[in-house]
Amino acid sequence: MVVLRPAGDIAAQQRDLVLLATGLMLLIIVPVIALTLLFAWKYRASNLQATYAPDWSHSNRIEMAVWGAPLAIILVLGAVTWTTSHTLDPYRPLSRLAPHRPIPAGVKPLEVDVVALDWKWLFIYPEQGVASVNELAAPVDRPIAFKITASSVMNAFYVPALAGQIYAMPGMQTQLNAVINQPGVYEGFSSNYSGAGFSGMKFKFKGLTPAEFDHWVAQAKAASPALTRADYLALARPSTDEPVRRFASVDPTLFLAVVNRCAAPGQVCKDQMKSPMPSSPMAVAMANRIRCAPTRRAPAQHAS
């Protein structure tokens, strides 16, 4: 029921889209089911009063109803889908906090870097300089800009009360822009199977007041160890049912190193790799074609 009673504006818009699409489809499904039952009853073998017309073959009015109503619904769904594909694009910065509530001038999104590990979640706060494991906190009514990746296998970051799921993939970075509008503690988890510890890959998302969020950050800085590269490599080892942990500081280059697959010493970062010089005209042509091809970002998905 969380999907139908979300606490964030993006999730609420996605819920409304699901309800609209379901309602439009029911405009066809309900009459078809009702007419099927009606015809089966009216034209039963024992009803001798029913009209018997074995040579009947066509009706313009029936054809108009059968084809016109679905076509109208498809046109409406197509227009809604095109519009919401842009307005609910997870990469698109938010334009509002809620209906009739624009984002106040000067408010910056809270940046959160998300790393899906085996089998736990690491959340890094670049602005605050802290990090946490299996605990995510954010102030209410402040946009959140997530950058998401994975350390080994594909996962999916999903907080149903906040927004739809977004895939987390090794060597790639996806994004999600969202906002939480109501204080509370919400469930978050991986919605993509990723191995033996998948069922325990859950975390708590805390929607806090600004003062509570500042206190949460202060607690992390006051009584937590630092997250170094060595600590990250130890944390990245497969483990299940990890307890909540916080880190008072974090290597500012860690997330970029995870995305580029070079968190361990001696590894060459993907963004620093050079392709070998092509040795034939065909290879040169292919290399030029690849370089000139438009860049495609990693696939992302809102799922309700």
TrEMBL record:
<dbReference type="InterPro" id="IPR010514">
    <property type="entry name" value="COX_ARM"/>
</dbReference>
<keyword id="KW-0679">Respiratory chain</keyword>
<keyword id="KW-1133">Transmembrane helix</keyword>
<feature type="transmembrane region" description="Helical">
    <location>
        <begin position="62"/>
        <end position="82"/>
    </location>
</feature>
<protein>
    <recommendedName>
        <fullName>Ubiquinol oxidase subunit 2</fullName>
    </recommendedName>
</protein>
<dbReference type="InterPro" id="IPR036257">
    <property type="entry name" value="Cyt_c_oxidase_su2_TM_sf"/>
</dbReference>
<dbReference type="GO" id="GO:0016682">
    <property type="term" value="F:oxidoreductase activity, acting on diphenols and related substances as donors, oxygen as acceptor"/>
</dbReference>
<dbReference type="InterPro" id="IPR002429">
    <property type="entry name" value="CcO_II-like_C"/>
</dbReference>
<keyword id="KW-0472">Membrane</keyword>
<dbReference type="InterPro" id="IPR008972">
    <property type="entry name" value="Cupredoxin"/>
</dbReference>
<dbReference type="GO" id="GO:0004129">
    <property type="term" value="F:cytochrome-c oxidase activity"/>
</dbReference>
<feature type="transmembrane region" description="Helical">
    <location>
        <begin position="20"/>
        <end position="41"/>
    </location>
</feature>
<feature type="domain" description="Cytochrome oxidase subunit II copper A binding">
    <location>
        <begin position="107"/>
        <end position="219"/>
    </location>
</feature>
<dbReference type="GO" id="GO:0042773">
    <property type="term" value="P:ATP synthesis coupled electron transport"/>
</dbReference>
<keyword id="KW-0732">Signal</keyword>
<dbReference type="InterPro" id="IPR034227">
    <property type="entry name" value="CuRO_UO_II"/>
</dbReference>
<dbReference type="Pfam" id="PF06481">
    <property type="entry name" value="COX_ARM"/>
</dbReference>
<keyword id="KW-0449">Lipoprotein</keyword>
<dbReference type="GO" id="GO:0009486">
    <property type="term" value="F:cytochrome bo3 ubiquinol oxidase activity"/>
</dbReference>
<dbReference type="GO" id="GO:0005886">
    <property type="term" value="C:plasma membrane"/>
</dbReference>
<keyword id="KW-0812">Transmembrane</keyword>
<dbReference type="InterPro" id="IPR045187">
    <property type="entry name" value="CcO_II"/>
</dbReference>
<dbReference type="InterPro" id="IPR011759">
    <property type="entry name" value="Cyt_c_oxidase_su2_TM_dom"/>
</dbReference>
<keyword id="KW-1003">Cell membrane</keyword>
<keyword id="KW-0813">Transport</keyword>
<dbReference type="Pfam" id="PF00116">
    <property type="entry name" value="COX2"/>
</dbReference>
<keyword id="KW-0560">Oxidoreductase</keyword>
<keyword id="KW-0564">Palmitate</keyword>
<keyword id="KW-0249">Electron transport</keyword>
<dbReference type="InterPro" id="IPR006333">
    <property type="entry name" value="Cyt_o_ubiquinol_oxidase_su2"/>
</dbReference>
<comment type="similarity">
    <text>Belongs to the cytochrome c oxidase subunit 2 family.</text>
</comment>
<dbReference type="GO" id="GO:0005507">
    <property type="term" value="F:copper ion binding"/>
</dbReference>
<feature type="domain" description="Cytochrome oxidase subunit II transmembrane region profile">
    <location>
        <begin position="1"/>
        <end position="92"/>
    </location>
</feature>
